[in-house]
Write a structure and sequence with these properties.
The chain is built from 11 helices and 16 strands. It is an alpha/beta fold. An 8-stranded parallel β-sheet has the order 8-7-6-5-4-3-2-9. Strands 10-11-14-13-12-15 form a 6-stranded antiparallel beta barrel. The structure holds pyridoxal-5'-phosphate.
């Protein structure tokens, strides 16, 4: 037992991978482990699930290098895709050295590849902008850019093609259907089909909710960790949350009606009560600005956080009947209190709640199969 800690259940992640394999039996599965695997600790996690996925994806070259080195350490290797491609300052030779696959979203990247003399060394994913309007080639000149990319010596053929949805979490949105149509028009427009490699459009929401989006390769992130990308309470996809974010009671105090607690006296107790002080704070990544009555789980019951969240401490109202003891576990989210519920309550998305966790929160792993 330690203070603010993240416990990751590898079996839950393997269960979720099983769910994806059932939903998309013919698709390769690329596990998205950017942002330290959404705070689940990418290196150990990747080592543990390596044999169950077809590859990994990250957002930055340095993330990819950390990942491949961690895998090498345990004698493993796997495809790694750079979802945002290489950046202007990145060294392209690193892509060759490590064998990373890269997304190509802009003409300047094609120009950079043209300068390289090596033959068929870099696997690329041509990104077409079907409506997200963030990264990717405009459909109007995508065919031209695609042939430019094919003309680069260093680029392996065929070239894979991907896109990204902007509204796949809105199950009734027409936007996703439109985006798939634009994607398919682009594929149709390429005359030499032998130049087309694999197709990929679906992240978590696309994979779970849009059957036509399950192409050659799927790229789940948040759902891999058992968290739904849809609005809460969401359709049940039989996902199991992998993370328990918890700490412990470090003080218990009796408290009188009308007394305040914490910085700024933002809360006064309406009754005599018993308060618990928990070793958790915004220094661990728990958000500071949360609404009144945000729950935590202690000894199987939900109790509210009261007063302001401090850097290292959070106070909870245990109630007069409290039998709780020093050292008792306090769960901020996990199996019985989904992070989606905290997201709905705080209006901070589950993606952000997870990725804002800090390095002070120690990560440990449970793996019953190992
Ligand atoms: C982050 C990301 C994903 C994973 O998204 P989730 O919604 O977490 O499943 C997939 N593809 C791309 C391009 C991404 O940036």
């Amino acid at each position: 037992m330690s203070v603010a800690s993240i416990v990751v259940d590898i079996d839950a992640i393997l269960h979720n991978i099983g769910v994806f394999r059932k939903i998309a039996p013919n698709s390769e599965l690329i596990a998205v482990v950017k942002a330290n695997a959404y705070a689940h600790g990418k290196t150990v996690l990747a080592q543990q699930i390596c044999h169950h996925v077809d590859g990994f994806a990250v957002a930055r070259l340095d993330e990819a290098i950390q990942l491949i080195n961690a895998l090498k350490k345990v004698g493993k290797t796997k495809r790694i895709i750079l979802l945002e491609g290489f950046f202007i300052h990145d060294n392209l030779n690193d892509l060759i050295k490590y064998g990373f696959e890269t997304v190509i979203h802009s003409s300047w990247q094609i120009d950079a590849l043209k300068q390289m003399a090596d033959k068929e060394k870099i696997t690329t994913w041509f990104k077409i902008d079907t409506g997200m309007h963030r990264l990717g080639f405009n459909p109007a000149d995508a065919s031209h850019c695609f042939s430019q990319l094919l003309s680069c010596n260093v680029v392996k053929k065929p070239v894979h093609i991907l896109s990204h949805f902007c509204c796949a979490d809105e199950i009734t949105s027409n936007k996703t259907i439109e985006q798939m149509a634009i994607f398919d028009q682009f594929i149709d427009s390429i005359k030499d089909k032998t130049t087309i490699g694999k197709q990929s459009i679906a992240a978590s929401a696309g994979l779970l909710a849009w059957s036509d989006a399950r192409r050659d390769v799927v790229r789940p992130g948040i759902s891999l960790y058992g968290v739904s990308p849809f609005e809460y309470p969401q359709t049940d996809f039989d996902l199991k949350p992998a993370m328990t974010f918890k700490s412990e009671l470090i003080a218990i105090r009796t408290h009188q009606q009308g007394e305040s607690v914490g910085y700024g006296q933002t809360w006064q107790s309406p009754n005599d009560t018993i308060l618990g002080v928990v070793a958790m704070g915004y220094g661990d990544g728990y958000p500071r600005n949360i609404p009144h009555n945000t729950p935590v789980l202690i000894n199987g019951r939900k109790v509210p956080i009261v007063g302001r969240v401090s850097m290292d401490m959070i106070v909870v109202d245990l109630g007069l009947a409290s039998q709780d003891k020093l050292g008792d576990e306090v769960i901020f989210w996990g199996n019985e209190l989904p992070v989606e519920e905290i997201a709905a309550h705080t209006k901070i998305s589950a993606y952000e709640l997870l990725t804002r966790l800090t390095a002070r929160a120690n990560i440990s792993y449970i793996n019953k199969q190992a």
